[in-house]
Structures are given as structure tokens and as C-alpha cells.
Specification:
single chain, alpha+beta, Lipase, subunit A, three-stranded antiparallel β-sheet, two-stranded antiparallel sheet, Colipase_CS
């Protein structure tokens, strides 16, 4: 019983030491290659063109270009940080033609 407890405690200590390291598939840092935004710590997998490799990057801040959240999970313009809204073309045509970009705005400062 004591050996089992010691082995359990050692394995927990080892697991805890690895939990703060970067991931290979998830928990990716900015600049690392990604296939889906869910893999990134920042929750934005960004590509500059249709032929470029996607990399994790920060979400858009206030007054930066943005894209509405997408089911695809890879963006040409990242969605806004939490608390901001992306005032963009939300039409189906905008989504298909990849022209649904907008600007991140704080809804509390909106003049509507």
C-alpha cells in the first residue's frame, strides 16, 4: 500500500511539472503553426493568404480589423478580444467571398 501511494505521488508530481509546458497539439503559443483556433492559447489561428501557413496570434484589439467568429476556425483577420464586438458584414456572401471584415469596437462606447 505504501509503495502504491509513493508511486501515485511521484506520478502526480511529474504530471504537474509537465502541465505548464507548451503543447504539441493544443495550448500553442503565438507564432506556432496551427490548423484550428482551438489549438491556440489566444484562440486565433491566423493566415495571411490562402497559400500561407496558419499560425497562432493574438485576437484583434479595439479599432483593429477583425472577422466575425467562424465555424472554420482559421482567420485572415482574428476575431475581437473578449468584451469587444466586430462590426462587420455578416451576410452569407461576405462569408463566402471572404470580405466580411470589420473593426473591433467596444459596445459600451458605441454611438448607436
Amino acid at each position: 500500500m505504501e509503495r502504491t501511494l509513493v508511486l501515485l505521488l511521484l506520478s502526480l508530481a511529474v504530471a504537474q511539472s509537465f502541465s505548464h509546458q507548451r503543447g504539441l497539439i493544443f495550448n500553442l503559443d503565438n507564432g506556432e503553426l496551427c490548423l484550428q483556433s482551438a489549438q491556440c492559447k489566444s484562440n486565433c489561428c491566423h493566415r495571411t493568404s490562402g497559400l500561407s501557413l496558419a499560425r497562432c496570434t493574438n485576437k484583434a484589439i479595439e479599432f483593429e480589423e477583425c472577422s466575425p467568429k467562424s465555424l472554420y476556425g482559421v482567420y485572415y483577420k482574428c476575431p475581437c478580444e473578449q468584451g469587444l464586438t466586430c462590426e462587420a458584414d455578416n451576410s452569407l456572401v461576405g462569408s463566402i467571398t471572404n470580405t466580411n471584415y470589420g473593426i473591433c469596437q467596444d459596445p459600451r462606447n458605441s454611438s448607436k
